[in-house]
């Protein structure tokens, strides 16, 4: 059985995808157990798919699948549900989160933690950001609004999250948010089923080239939060005893 699958959602990432895949392969090769990378081509119009195909061989295989529904959430959901590994997670194509986080992530999952969340808000995280004041203000407002849906989680949007198989299937199957704010719905569903969640300190570097635009995408993100609240409110809360309600912060 494959130990770990890492899903990488990709939309027009031709210029940096090769470097990212090489770094992921190097990190996964240290586990000495079968692992894989799943690149999800999300309606790219460049050579992203071709770049992924060039990395298919080697000790860590790379699979390429396509998701025709636009949106990071749709791409990650497609990738996760096409895996059957013991653990599965996703990271961004810019690899902003240093993969030194992989070893502690696997340790937590192997000891029974259900969800490991990379957290830039953790006091032990190292964050190198170059955001404008407008973007910083927007991020603060988004975190505040998201906190009413996923209380106790300091950073919902870091593109580094990993799950055990049972939890991944339970929360990705019903996921209905296709865009950037999908993490909020995902974590809310994890809390609903009583998943044990750990926020992990990370080393995170703001990488140039983000397609997120505060004025254009900020409004959409807040609208998505309203939809998530409505979606969850319309569903019956599962009658599952929580494994651990509070989020654990780890030094």
Automatic annotation (TrEMBL):
Where do the coiled-coil regions begin and end? none
Domain of life, per lineage: Bacteria
In what residue span(s) does the Glycosyltransferase 2-like domain sit? 5-135
The EC number(s) attached to this protein equal 2.4.-.-
Q: Which Pfam families match?
A: Glycos_transf_2
Q: Give any GO molecular function from the UniProt entry.
A: glycosyltransferase activity
**Biological process annotations from GO:** protein N-linked glycosylation
User: What keywords sit in the KW lines?
Assistant: Glycosyltransferase, Transferase
UniProt enzyme class:
transferase
Output this protein's name: Glycosyltransferase
Which species is the source of this protein? Umezawaea endophytica
